[in-house]
Amino acid sequence: MRSSFLGFEAAKRSIQVSQKALDITFNNISNRDTEGYTRQRLDLASANVSTSSLLWNSSTAKLSLAGQGVVGVGVAQLRDTYIDKRYRENVAVQVENEKMSEVLSEVEDILDNIETDGLKAALEDFENKLHNYSAERPDSEDIASVVRNSAQSIAQMLRSYDTKLTKLHNDQISELGIKVDNFNSITSKIADLNEQIKIEYTRNYGNSEYSDMMNVSNYGPNELIDARNLLLDDLAKLASISVEEKSDGSVTVSVGKTTVVEGKKTSQLIMRDYEQFDAAVLMFDNGDSFNSVSGEIKSYVNLINGAGVYASGNENNEYGIPYYKYAVDQFAQTFAQALNSANGADLNPERKLFSSDTGNITAGTIKVSDEWMKDATMIAQTLDEDTGEYSLNPNLQNTNIAKIISSINQSTDFGVHGDFTGDMHEYIAFYSNRLFQQIDYVNSQYDSAETTVVSLLESRDSLSAIDLEEEGINMLNYQKWFNASARMMTTLDEALDTIINSMGLVGR
Hints:
The protein is an alpha+beta fold. It folds into three domains: 1-52 and 66-78, no CATH class; 85-105 and 169-306, no CATH class; 123-163 and 321-434, no CATH class. It is 56% helix and 12% strand. The protein contains twelve helices and 16 strands. The protein has helices spanning 4-30, 81-111, 119-135, 141-205, 222-238, 274-277, 296-305, 321-342, 370-374, 399-408, 424-464, 468-502, and strands spanning 40-46, 55-57, 62-64, 70-77, 241-245, 251-255, 258-262, 265-266, 269-271, 282-284, 354-355, 367-368, 382-384, 389-391, 412-414, 420-422. The strands form seven sheets. A four-stranded antiparallel sheet has the order 5-6-7-8. Strands 1-4 form a two-stranded antiparallel sheet. The model is unreliable at 208-216 (pLDDT under 50).
């Protein structure tokens, strides 16, 4: 019979490991609703007893003392790094397009030319009132005032657009600053966890006697790793990241070509002063520019800096809030210049229908001129070539109004960048359709990314989430294992008691 104490050792190991398996199973069940928790598993290996002092000599060979029970190598997490990588790539695209859609939809609500009556309807109303006025008496102050009031509505609407778009733009600048701070906070926390994990990994597994048998780098302080994975998922929403796992348990995180976390070191993201650069300029404290192919921060940069064909300086060619501000400005300038010219302001500045307190007409500064406010009928006045003065001439009452109406429907180049050529009605439809198509595009990108993200999360959950039925079956099996191991210990104890106390006594 094998030495009794070797049997006790094997039974003891079996009891200890089965108890540990029960502990891990119970821990899984307890953390079923814990955010970020990854299912754990106890990995097992046969006890390795084969040193030179523990060889058993037989008539044919020297045999190691195999069959000495089981040992727990480590507690592993059931997690697929490839699924994590793909999830983080796709969630960055999803969040980017979600933010773009949200803000561009706000721009659409402000410009309100698709589903509600906006500038397009106001321009049509103004033109209709001009037609009505041309059919009435040109000296009618009341009817002329109706036309002027319609023009005031257009100017007021343009100023409202500018105010709302400016506020929306400023809101994105403020929110980007918060996202930058959040980015730096997350990278600092990841670096702190790197250091803690490295210490715990080295302390618990760095000198494992089973390091030659198993890949012990799979084992570590699992709860700390879960916390770090949650942070990595949050960071992936802000920027497109790549993650490299190191042999000491730490991770290296990069954005583009810039390493933002390496061990306990981080590169902090900096947002330069907006007023100085007239754009959102992001860079790292090591001098690298922020260059992320996707992510929420990228969406903020494009929304803040995207000036389309009007881009200059630090702006970019994306169609963000600045582009639509420029588009509305271009309409205000072209509209005012065309009507002023049609009313004779090129030769006589006092004939201006629209002006600006700053001198430069934009959507934010356009207003009905003081001259038109003093005399509503000035748009019906015609030039007397003999006297060189404008006056109401019943025989020519439609002449000047016809010029104004014609200027609205005349094909014009909007903007020095050649963004569009057409009349004013067509230009409003042009930038409104561009906005609609852009929203449709980012929504389709979001839907595609969301479908992929949901699929990846389901794949991750099928591996890493807790299944109560499966864990319940494991608990029953481990309990049976524990009971059998305990019974083996009792049997060995009874056998040893019989050998010591009942065998070989004289007289029996």
